[in-house]
Amino acid sequence: MLRTYPIGIAVVLLAGSVGAGAATAQEPIVVSQAEAQEHLMKGVGPKYPPTAEFARIQGLVVIKIRISKDGSVTETNALSGHPLLVGAAVDAVKKWKYKPFVSDGNPVEVTTTAEVPFWLGGALSSAREEKATIAHYFEQDEECHDLFKAQEYQKAEAPCRAAVDLAEKLAAAPALKRIDSYEVLGYTLFDLRKLPESLEYFKRELPLAEKTLRSDDAELGRAYHALGLGLYANGDLKGAREYYGRSIKTLELARAHARSDRLKVGTANTMKIVLQEYAKLLRQSGDEAAALDAEKRAKSVK
Questions:
Q1: 31-119: what fold?
Q2: Has residue 127 got a pLDDT over 60?
Q3: Residues 6+ apart with CB under 8 A from 122
C-alpha cells in the first residue's frame, strides 16, 4: 500500500504482498508470519486452561494454520508448545480473521504460522489480571488497525497508544506484535504531524526488528525506512541518510532472496519508491551527484 504524506514523502506499507510458493489448485501459498500479521483483522486471546493455570504452566504455542480465501482459519496443526496449552491455543486461533490474501487480483488460500503466548504473574490473582490485560490488548489492537486502515488517525491515536502500552506490559508478547504496535502508532502520529513523538516510536521499533528479523527480510527494510522517514521529517538529514541507506541495502537483499516472483516484484516496487525518497533527501542535503545516482537506480529497478 502506498501512502503519501503531507511533507511529500511516500511510505510503502507491504500489507498487500504475498509470500513464497506458487499458487496451485491443490496447495496454498506459503506466507511469512510477518506478512500474515499485517493481514490479521481480528485476533482472539486464548482462555487459560484451569489445570495449566493452577500448575503455573506457561510458554508459547506455535501453530501452522491454513487461511481460506475469505480470511477464515480452516486448518490448524500445533508445531510446539505444552500439551495442556495447545488445545486452548488452537481454539483461539480458529476464531482469528484475516484480510483475504490476493494473487493476480484473485483471493487465494495461504498457510503460515501463528504464535499464541501463555504467561502468568506471581500469583493466581495477578494471573487473572494478566488474562484481562491480554484480552484488552487484542481489543485495542484491532480497533487501532481498523481506524488506521480507514485513515481516521485522530480516532486511531488512543487505541494505538493503548495497544503499545499493553504490549509493553506483557513482557512475553510475541515480538512481531510489539514491532507492529510501535510501527502503526508511529505512522498514526506521523499523519497527525506529531513528528518528534512519531520518531520515538520508530526508534523503539527498530532494535526489536533487528533482533527478531533476518538481515534479508523486507520487513526489516521497512523498519529502517520508517526510522529514516522519521529522522527526515524531524530535520536530521544526516541520520535519515544513514537509515535510508540501510533500508535500500536490506531491500536489495530481500529482493535477491525473494522466494517468488510476486514477492520479488513487490520488494522491487518498495525499493523504487524508497530510492526516489532518498534522492529527494540527498538533493536537499546538497549532494546532487548522489541524488542523480539514486534516481538512476530507481529507474533501473524492475
A1: TolA/TonB C-terminal domain (3.30.2420)
A2: no
A3: none
